[in-house]
Amino acid sequence: MRPPLLYHLYVGATALLVPFFAWIETRKLRAAGVSILRAHEKLGHATATRAGAGPLIWFHAASVGESMSVLSLIGEMGRQMPRAHFLITSGTATSAKMVANHLPPRTVHQFAPLDAPGPVRRFIRHWRPECVVFVESELWPQMLRLTRDSGAKMILVNARLSATSQKAWQRRPKTAAFVLGTFDLILTQNDEMAQAMVDMHAPADRVARGINLKSLAAPLQQNPETLAKIRTSLKGRRVWVAASTHKGEEEIVLRAHVRLLADNPDLLLLLAPRHPERSKEVVQLIEEEGLSFRVRSQDELPGNRNVYLADTLGELGNWYALSNAIFLGGSLKPIGGHNPFEVTLSGSGVISGPEVFNFSETYAEMTQAGVVQFVKDDAELAQAVDKMLNDTAVMEATGRAARDYVRGKSSQTSTIATRLIRALDLQGEVR
């Protein structure tokens, strides 16, 4: 299909604006502690070499959650194809830090190039991927077109677009058909999204229902030394966790904790905001509730305080290990929820608000499996936490349901890896 006029206009605009966007992105990465050398990966300047032997399979996953969701899949594909090498790209400093600690064998990470002619061409010329797997919703037109022109096979997995994005694409049917037509296969999270892709002019014979890759993720890492120090400091105190909370949710969580303290005076709230840079703001909220606290980023231990503010990255695995009463944020406000699989992988059920539209099908499955309890305010949240802490029957039943649910999902990793290998015509690499 010939590129529509809108695509040509986009290419011209990005070529002109490369210096401006390069300055913004480089500055953002440098502020997050990324070296200037690695920040220039955004301009297509590779900082790693391409392995000579075996095919290179490129996974592009924009965010932390998307990046982490594909690591188990890469590991399984690598096991089945011992000659293959893997490249994973993402856009943020946080995702780079998280992925760096979990890279499977024969896998390297780079920052994705800006969607402009020069950066994308430099990137493809260096890496020469035989196959590319794009994850979820990052549809960069030039990245897709130039990768396709290089002869690489292309798959979109976990395909998901918001209602707003769908409407925007539907208003530009020629551009949508051109962009979605670059893929050899589009795997969606559910039947509804499969139909939406077809409605957006994706080739119907290339659209199929897949699986939510986040269900294949490995359990979050734990640090035994950190856990030992925390448990020693707690001296047997019980804990409940509020993880990945957003602005407007901490107030609800803290009010719930005040309610819980009335009958559980020794109870600790371990509060882990989604964005640790909001630490000062959250501290102010804790003080306004009259609660005592300590802060993880200051190397403090919880001791006998009411709240432990876990304002660090990469430690959720430790916090989930401390409790079976876990509230997952991004769900009491219209944010769409966060990955609930990480909670169930710890052997716990999930307490969640109702605003989980980004994971609607997942939560429907989990609800049916008896893994999720929904709450809408501080009173219901306090009640749900109290039940998980003090009702042994509920605690055991929910934990058992979570473990059964995880076992059912984890067995699918090999099946999905085999499906992708076939779709990418890599059967000859399987040993």
TrEMBL record:
InterPro entries cross-referenced by the UniProt entry: Glycos_transf_N, Glycos_transf_N_sf, Kdotransferase
GO biological process: lipid A biosynthetic process; lipopolysaccharide core region biosynthetic process
Catalytic activity: lipid IVA (E. coli) + CMP-3-deoxy-beta-D-manno-octulosonate = alpha-Kdo-(2->6)-lipid IVA (E. coli) + CMP + H(+)
Residues of the active site: 66 (proton acceptor)
GO CC annotations on file: plasma membrane
Residue ranges of the TM segments: 6-24
Principal place of residence: membrane
Limits of the 3-deoxy-D-manno-octulosonic-acid transferase N-terminal domain: 39-214
Keywords: Cell membrane, Lipopolysaccharide biosynthesis, Membrane, Transferase, Transmembrane, Transmembrane helix
Superkingdom assignment: Bacteria
Protein EC: 2.4.99.12
Entry's Gene Ontology molecular function annotations: Kdo transferase activity
Protein name: 3-deoxy-D-manno-octulosonic acid transferase
